[in-house]
Specification:
Helices cover about 45% and strands about 20% of the residues. It has about 325 residues and is α+β, with helices and mostly antiparallel strands. The protein folds into two domains: about 150 residues, 2-Layer Sandwich (Beta-Lactamase), CATH 3.30.450.40; about 150 residues, Alpha-Beta Plaits, CATH 3.30.70. The chain is built from nine helices and twelve strands. A five-stranded antiparallel beta sheet has the order 2-1-5-4-3. It has a five-stranded mixed beta sheet with strand order 7-8-6-11-12, with helices on both faces. It is elongated, with a radius of gyration of 26 Å. Helix 1 packs antiparallel against helix 2, helix 1 packs parallel to helix 4 and helix 6 crosses helix 7. It starts with a helix and ends with a strand.
């Protein structure tokens, strides 16, 4: 008859197989939520991960009853994060748990698996389980993050860092489906730089690129995190807004127009001159009932803004 340790190894093997199929970190949490309390059934613990592109390490999952004094390991003080070495509370009073094991990817430490109360030593069996578990978790987290980075490269415009046309088509379809189910509205704002060809011909494409990057940065910081800002092509941008009303979209477009007009963009120490934009606004369901029609209606409104003198906001016609 298989003993407790053999059962834990069987659980560990099952967890490893499921971790390989995870494509998002939230899916990984669902797997470890079920397995880790069973693998480490008599001790508490936590998993801490470094936030992407940051040095902050935060607990992302806990099980059992962690010590009231338990804290996330500190990057500048912890040997696990600083040196990438396992740490036992038997060897240092600074340990955040009984046994702390680093989680690593090809570039270094990305987190830690913290097992047990620092006031007690952990058995050899649990230490071995922790080492194996950390390897499986490291591989899964690093693969998920690498795949995310690769995906980001396919949906980002390399010059401005905004979402590209491919992502715009994807998110439009998803948000339309969500809005139809929830009975909510969507807004589309098409933005086009006025007289951009003259600027390119006069100052050169490098100056034009600087203008595009500055305007893109302005659009990102002037919109909400739930809005999608995309480079539609050339000097055109498209903003998808969720929720709100057509009046909200028109107000946001007016604010964008004002902020961009106030920019003083320098190229080689010299101002490129006043930058203005024309904006076309359309909404679902008031103007369009498909993603394609929303974009077309916003583009038509933009064309009217250009025809009426540029540097203005125009709403789509019913």
């Amino acid at each position: 008859m298989a003993g407790p340790h053999t059962h834990k190894l069987t659980l560990l093997s099952g967890m490893a197989m499921l971790l390989q199929s995870c494509s998002r970190e939230t899916e990984l949490y669902d797997v470890i939520y079920w397995y880790l309390p069973k693998i480490f059934s008599h001790v508490s613990g936590r998993i801490c991960l470094q936030e992407k592109n940051k040095h902050t390490v935060l607990p992302v999952f806990e099980w059992g009853k962690p010590s009231q004094t338990a804290v996330a390991p500190k990057p500048l003080k912890c040997e696990v994060l600083g040196k990438g070495l396992p740490v036992s509370s038997r060897k240092t009073s600074l340990a955040c748990c009984a046994y702390c094991v680093p989680l690593k990817d090809k570039d270094g430490v990305i987190g830690a698996l913290c097992v047990g109360n620092p006031q007690f030593s952990l058995s050899e069996q649990y230490r071995k389980l922790a080492l194996i578990t950390a390897e499986y978790l490291s591989l899964s987290v690093s693969n998920i993050r690498l795949n995310h980075q690769l995906y980001e490269l396919t949906i980002r415009d390399p010059l401005t860092g905004l979402y590209n046309r491919r992502y715009m088509d994807e998110i439009l379809e998803k948000e339309f489906q969500r809005a139809r189910r929830a009975g909510t509205a969507l807004g589309g704002i098409m933005v086009d730089l006025d007289h951009f060809k003259i600027l390119n011909d006069t100052l050169g494409h490098d100056a034009g690129d600087q203008v595009l990057k500055t305007v893109a940065h302005t659009l990102i910081h002037a919109t909400r995190t739930q809005d999608a800002v995309c480079r539609f092509g050339g000097e055109e941008f498209f903003i998808l807004m969720t929720g709100g009303t057509i009046n909200d979209y028109l107000t946001r477009a007016g604010d964008l127009n004002t902020q961009i007009s106030a920019l003083d963009i320098l190229w080689q120490g010299v101002s490129v001159g006043p930058i203005t934009v024309s904006l076309g606004v359309a909404g679902f369901p008031v103007h369009a009932n498909t993603p394609e029609i929303l974009v077309h209606k916003a583009d038509q409104a933009l064309y009217r803004a250009k025809k009426q003198g540029r540097n203005q906001v125009v709403c789509a016609q019913l």
